[in-house]
Structures are given as C-alpha cells and as structure tokens.
Amino acid sequence: MHSIAPIILAACIAPALADTSWQTDIDAALKQASDENRPILAAFTGKGWCGACMDMERNLTHTPAFIKKTAKNFILVELDLPKDSSDTAALKMKNRQWATQCGISYIPALLVMDKEGGIYGGFFGGAPTDENVRPKLDRALESLKESTAKRKQAEKLSGTEKTEALVQAYLSIGAGQRHTHRKLREQIRALDPEDTSGLAELEQLEEQIRQPAGRTAEERDAWGTSILRQIDTATSRRHLPHATLTPLLDVQAAILSMQARTPEQLDAACTLLDKLSTLSPENAAWYAQRKTDLQQRKERMQEQQTRQIPGIGI
Predict the structure, then answer these.
(1) 199 Cβ partners below 8 Å, 6+ apart?
(2) ∠129-133-135 over CA atoms, to 5°?
(3) Are 117 and 103 a contacting pair, CB within 8 Å?
(4) Using CA atoms, how far apart are residues 91 and 85, in angstroms rounded to an integer?
(5) Are strands 109-113 and 119-124 parallel, antiparallel or unpaired?
C-alpha cells in the first residue's frame, strides 16, 4: 500500500507556489522589469466575479507547469479588476486605469508588456488553454524583441536617421498596441517637433479608427469617408517617409475595400495594394492575397450586375 502523504503535500505546495509566482502590483513589476531588463506578462482578471477568469487561473495561469515555463521569459503580474464602480480599493482602481490604458474591453486577458508598460500583443478571451495561449504569447514576445533591437540600433544614429529608425521601431509594433508606447512616442516627438515623419498625423488617424464606426451602414460609411479624407490630406500635402506612408495606405486600402459598391472602386483598392507591395516587399504575399480576394469579389459583383440587366444572362 502506498502512502498518500506525498500526494497531499504536493497538492498543498503547488497552489502556494502558483500564488506567490504572480505579483499583484504593476508598479513593482515594472521596476523589476527595468532593473532586470526583462519583459512582463500581465494577467488582467476579476477574482471572485469573473467566471472565465477563475477558469483560466485554475486551469492555466496558476498551474505549476504554466508558471515554470512562462516565468523563464517573463515577470508575472496579475491585475485584479473591480467588478463595478462601488469597489474603490486603491490597487483595483489603479488596475482599472491600466486596463483602460491598455485598451482592454473584456477579460481575461494576458498581455506581453515591456519595461515601459508598452503592449506587444497577447491573448484575449476565448478558450484559455496552453495550446491557444502559448503561440500568441510567443508572437508578442518576438514583436517585443524586434522593436527593442530596432530601438537599440536607432540609438547609435543621430539626426534624421535616428528619427526615421525610431519611427520604424514604433511602426513595427502592432497598430492595436502602438498607443500604449507613450515613452517612445514622446522621444520621437522631441526629435521631430515639426512632424516631418508624419507620425503625429498617423496617431490622430489611429485614434479615430479606434472610435466606434457606427451601427448603421450610413454611419459606417461616414466614418470611413472621414478617415479617407484625412489620409488624402496627409499624403497630398507633403512627401512622407515610407515607414509612415505604408500604414496610411494600408488603412486606405482596407476602407476602400469595405466601402466598395462597384467594380471600379474595387480596382482602386487593388491599385493601392500593388503600391503597398512595392513599398513593403516583405509583406508582398499578404497584399497579393488581399488583392486576389478583391478580384474574386469583383467577379461576383460583375456576375450579379449581369444578371440584373434585362435581356442579358439567364
């Protein structure tokens, strides 16, 4: 007969190890990340009231296997959010401010963060299994490493070259996370007060894109038309560096595709995608696939128009 004492002991120790591996103060985690030059994995959760969050903690983030593997690459910090405005505990209020700053609209969320508090991606909602979470964390960590390497290289330069290199580092971060990189933006603004890079205009545009597009088709069209007008103004007024011009044209192509009602409008979007392939050859395959999708949509549109013309078609 085997003693169950070791099993009981292991069961008691494992949760304790899991609990102490996650810090609860984001400021302390940021200081440690700065001191040790390591990234952060921030878990936004709602203890005691968010069922999906508690499932994630029980089945993933607080398991010894996950912690052992993840703590090798990250400083772990858990931000417990209040259920509503009646919970005014200081730490939870600070956590809520961070959630707003990071653009989190629902939890649970696991975000890869640098020592300055900038976000590079992560996992939002869904089924929080290691198979689903790990690839997203790995991609976010690679994005962090890429941006960090570009910033280090930029610091070796001076003048316009340094500014352009920092802009490229900024734009290598996903569009949905760039707004969280306040310190990097401030550094670029200090070097480029006249906004010759066009980054300030791009930021204004991305802020508008993050706003709700509207519920009705008319409201969404008006939202898209307003953004297109801003892009036309920004690109026609001056010559922009490729690093800033590319994301502007990417947004323009996406909105033109969304609003297209005629084959000619789809052709205009395809022309933009061709230009983007030239500006960003490393993404040429992605733009080519988008163009193929639009061309297929154009064919379906033309077939439908043919059927609607009296005396033509079946």
Answers:
(1) 167, 170, 185, 188, 189, 192, 244
(2) 130
(3) no
(4) 13
(5) antiparallel
Q: Helix (H, G, I), strand (E, B), or coil: what is residue 222?
A: helix
> Measured between alpha carbons, how far is 244 from 149 in angstroms, rounded to an integer?
19
Rounded Cα gap, residues 173 and 180, in angstroms: 10
* Residue 212, CB-side half-sphere exposure with 13 Å CA sphere: 6
Non-local CB neighbours of 262 within 8 Å, separated by 6+ positions: 301
260 phi/psi in degrees, rounded to 5: -60, 130
- How many beta carbons lie within 10 A of that of residue 174, not counting itself? 14
Query: What's the DSSP call for residue 179?
Result: G
Per-residue pLDDT reduced to its tens digit, 135-151: 999 999 999 999 999 99
Question: What confidence tens digit (pLDDT) does each residue in 57-101 have?
Answer: 999 999 999 999 999 999 999 999 988 767 678 888 899 999 988
Amino acid making up residue 162: K
> What are the tokens at 128?
């929080």
Q: Which two tokens stand for residue 269?
A: 């979007």
What is the total residue count of the chain? Answer: 314
Cβ 251 vs Cβ 227: under 8 Å: yes
* Lowest mean pLDDT across 59-73, 202-216, 217-231: 202-216
CA atoms of 248 and 253, how far apart (whole Å): 9
What is the spatial distance between Cα 235 and Cα 230, in angstroms, rounded to a whole number? 9
3-state secondary structure 227-283: HHHHHHHHHHHCCCCHHHHHHHHHHHHHHHHHHCCCHHHHHHHHHHHHHHHHHCHHH
DSSP 57: I
